[in-house]
Write a structure and sequence with these properties.
Helix content: 25-40%
Strand order of the largest sheet: 4-5-13-10-11-12
Radius of gyration: 23 Å
Bound molecules: pyridoxal-5'-phosphate, zinc ion
Largest sheet: 6 strands, mixed
Oligomer: single chain
């Protein structure tokens, strides 16, 4: 008899079901709650109902053995070992045959130090885990390899997602690798071209609906109850199993020294929750002695979690009509808000918001470090500055920003910023003189010149603050 490696547990009422018994919308029929994937070794908090099956210590994987095994797999030539997600498969046993997983060798993303951004924020130590360096250019790949592998193993032919762009790019790529058909629902006109082009390139059927992201989710949720289409939005808990693995990789890169603080952007609010699950599991298994704080930053124009915390302490979600140029997080009614709230509460982090102007400034500052990211990722630095200014993060605390998307995902935004065309006149008028000066020092628009050596020379002189027309002396 085959032994189940995992179950799904409702995050609201605690009901447990077999992974294969889940309905098409990934919601508990009793209470509409979302599910967590749990394992025989999972820690079931006593506060959660139905936590009656205690984890057996004998089933706990051994931390030293895990560290050794994960390191060993780095030298393997097998695709499943080369994946920065499946290398950690001992902590996500969600498929029966790991050698058949659908992988583009996701994960394995770099950790960069950002000394100039640290100084700007007022702290000594700042790193960025760049999830935009994944195969399709965003962190979504880590979740997609996991959930798409489950879809393929369960013999689905069609998969679908509603997306602000990055999920659809990732889903289309992984579906194509697996030979599955994919359908993308995107909001009309509110998606970066780079992302839309990826879905087409990977052969997805792209449906652009005359609504926003939240409207796309409504339609798709209805459709999957009528057709055998596998839903790949982040309500699918297998996505979060993949998205928790950057927490493992990060700690490995830091030689298991736990930073004080992790900062993530918040849109549909699954990613902060996924990382919190990863850190919590590592702590439970004895891989790390404590859990870092996780803070979630939203755009001011798409801030339902921030507003709900301010106005009712997170009792109820206050959906908003979302509007931000950081289109990846243009989400007004986030599905995973309760999971995100749990992540904030269990780790002791905060929820902040960043204005359009603060996001643009932070993005330019990350770019000026030679790292770059898409606008949604830059909310992390904008939020960090605020948390430091409020005294919630102190100078000596070690902070890691999760940069979720590659700078090339939304080059229109970057070009408009550098040309001084991103903001309306009314918005520009609101920017303080000191911030205007900061923007001016960061903007690098292309300089259009006559093809004449003297003209070029004079222009360079003014930029380099030196006289080039005189002979250069070396003495
Ligand atoms: C680049 C980028 N950053 C952040 C997010 C937000 O992640 P989540 O929806 O899990 O909060 C998304 C996707 O929605 C994204 O594409
Ligand atoms: Zn339930």
């Amino acid at each position: 008899m085959k032994v189940a490696t995992h179950q799904l547990r409702c995050t609201e009422c605690g009901t447990r079901i077999a992974g294969s018994a889940v309905n098409s919308i990934f919601r508990c029929p009793e209470c509409n709650g979302l599910y967590d994937v749990i394992y025989p070794w999972s820690l079931i908090p006593p506060s959660i109902p139905n936590g009656d099956i205690p984890a057996s210590d004998s089933k706990l994987p051994n931390p030293s053995a895990l560290r050794w095994l994960w390191q060993e797999r780095r030298t393997s030539t097998m695709p499943v070992d080369q994946s920065g997600v499946w290398r950690f498969r001992d902590l996500l046993p969600i498929v029966d045959n790991p050698e058949d997983v659908v992988t583009l060798r996701e994960g394995n993303t770099p950790l960069y130090d950002l000394p100039r951004c640290a100084k700007l924020a007022g702290i000594d130590w700042l790193l960025a885990k760049h999830q935009g360096m994944n195969p399709t250019g965003s962190f979504k790949d880590t979740g997609m390899t996991a959930a798409l592998s489950v879809a393929a193993e369960r013999k689905f032919e069609w998969v679908a997602c509603a997306s602000t762009g990055n999920t659809s790019a990732a889903m289309a790529a992984y579906a194509a690798r697996a030979g599955l058909r994919s359908i993308v629902f995107i909001p009309e006109g509110k998606i970066a071209w780079g992302k839309l082009s990826q879905s087409m390139d990977y052969g997805a059927l792209t449906l652009q609906l005359k609504t926003d992201f939240d409207g796309c989710v409504r339609i798709l949720t209805d459709l999957v109850t009528r057709f055998p289409i596998y839903l790949l939005n982040s309500v699918n808990p297998y996505r979060l199993e993949g998205q928790k693995t950057p927490a493992f990789e990060l700690l490995e890169q830091l030689e298991w020294q736990v930073p004080e603080h992790i900062i993530v952007p918040g849109g549909n609010l699954a990613n902060g929750a996924a990382l919190a699950k990863g850190f919590t599991e590592m702590h439970h298994l004895g891989l790390i002695p404590r859990i870092p704080k996780i803070s979630i930053i939203q755009a001011e124009g798409a801030n339902p979690l921030y507003r709900s915390l301010q106005e009712n302490g997170g009792e109820e979600l206050i959906p908003v009509k979302a509007n931000t140029r950081a289109t990846a997080i243009r989400i007004g009614n986030p599905a995973s808000w309760r999971k995100a709230l749990r992540a904030l509460r269990t780790t002791g982090g905060w929820c902040e918001q960043a204005s359009e102007q603060e996001i643009a400034l932070a993005k330019a500052q990350i770019g000026a470090e030679g790292v770059g990211c898409e606008p949604a990722s830059a909310v992390t630095l904008a939020g960090l500055k605020k948390l430091v200014a409020q005294g919630k993060i102190t100078r000596e605390e070690r902070v890691v920003l999760i940069l979720t998307g590659h700078t090339l995902k939304d080059s229109d935004y970057t070009i408009n910023y550098h040309r001084g065309e991103l903001f309306t006149e009314a918005e520009n008028a609101e920017i303080s003189t000191s911030d205007q000066a900061l923007h001016a020092s960061l903007r690098k628009p292309p300089v259009v010149l006559e093809a004449d050596s003297d003209v070029v020379l004079h222009t360079l002189e003014s930029h380099m603050n030196m006289k080039l027309s005189q002979p250069v002396t070396t003495a």
